[in-house]
Amino acid sequence: MPLARRVLSWLDDNTERYLMVAFYAALALIISVEVGRRYITGQQTQWGSTVSIYCFIWLSWLGCAYHVKHRTHLRFDGVRAKMPRLVQALLYWFDDLLWLLMASIVLTASLHLVQTQLELGGMIEGTNVIPMAFATAAVPVGWSLIVIRSLQDMAKVWKAYRDGDPFKVDINDGSVGG
Known about the structure:
This protein is mainly α. The chain has helices at about 5-40, 50-70, 75-80, 85-120, 130-135, 140-165.
């Protein structure tokens, strides 16, 4: 397998997971340090609470994409499993189309916000190094990943339907099929 394909495969398997771990670690570290500083010195940084909130926002949108990928978001499989195969496939595609429709709305609005933040050149409150655009980019990045994961799911559903495989979900790797 060529190196580029291995890298892309690794990214496909791990992007959300490692980014979520990184933001969660940053969030936990900032909160822990700030609680310790407040307890020991009675003071806190100006940026600690703000940056930890933005880490949580990144974590949330990446988590949403992760759950779309693994099909662990809200769903009604008990009812769906009793329906004919074609209806099941159409409902899975309908789920993905809803994600894509919502993504088109959210991406349109959020990209405009990020562009505005870049033009204004603002920084996160209390910092001189973290652009506000980085904080607001969590939404379009998360929803772009949701678009990718929805398109991948549509392809997996098509393959499972075409091959006659059952529409079960493997929670470990998010694959649809037998």
